[in-house]
Design brief:
Elements lengths: L5 H10 L7 H13 L2 H17 L1 E2 L6 E2 L5 H4 L4 E8 L2 H8 L6 E5 L17 H10 L4 E4 L5 H14 L5 E4 L15 H9 L2 E2 L3
Parallel strand pairs: 3-4, 3-5, 5-6
Antiparallel strand pairs: 1-2, 6-7
Helix pairs in contact: 1-2
């Protein structure tokens, strides 16, 4: 693709690095931005800068937040004894959209995957163990993707926590094997949480 402007080419190259965006779509987006009022592009650029520089991870659950502790962890009305384990922040958003769960979360930051070089030490598992030891948690809910990586991670964490006085459960498998939670529709995901079942190995 030939460009008459190096600035346009640079913008297209950067936009094309986004997931699901090819060169043609990137060009269309760049041209769209050129045709908009300058303030719109400025606001977009500032939002991206703020996204990178100001968003934090909650020091308790590792959800994304603007403060040291996220709104969910700070909400005294939530059930503090239930802890839902999820792969990443998108899963928190997906579960929250169902309005079926009122407990707390713990974001692992990924799944154990030897093929991808991701081990337990790369996740927030040790922080999870400390939370269980220091907080009055009675139920740990595994809401991980129904994949080999998700099952491996669940088994590893179960073994780490099995000596604690905890009830272990997992969401009902209404979510198709191999699907990620954030892609499940709200009704299916909501039912999977409400109908969670005891976890046994």
């Amino acid at each position: 693709m030939d460009f008459s402007s190096k600035l346009l080419q640079s913008a297209v190259d950067e936009i094309a690095q986004l997931p699901g965006i090819g060169k043609r779509t990137a060009l269309r987006l760049a041209i769209f931005l050129l045709r908009q009022p300058e303030i719109q592009s400025v606001n977009l650029a500032q939002a991206i800068v703020d996204l990178r520089s100001k968003i934090k991870h909650c020091k308790n659950c590792f959800n994304i937040t603007d403060e040291e502790v996220c709104e969910i962890c700070n909400d005294v009305k939530r059930e503090s004894k239930a802890l839902c384990l999820v792969q990443d922040v998108r899963d928190v958003m997906a579960i929250e959209s169902t309005a079926e769960y009122r407990g707390k979360y713990h974001v692992l930051g990924g799944l154990i995957s030897p093929i991808e070089g991701i081990g337990p030490q790369d996740l927030t598992i040790e922080a999870l163990v400390k939370r269980v030891e220091n907080e009055e948690i009675s139920e740990v809910i595994f809401a991980l993707s129904a994949t080999p990586e998700g099952d491996t991670t669940s088994f590893y964490i179960y073994k780490k926590l099995m000596d604690k006085e905890l009830q272990f459960s997992t969401i009902a498998r209404g979510v198709s094997i191999g699907d990620e939670l954030q892609y499940a529709d709200e009704v299916t995901l909501g039912r999977s949480i409400s109908n969670r079942i005891p976890l046994k190995y």
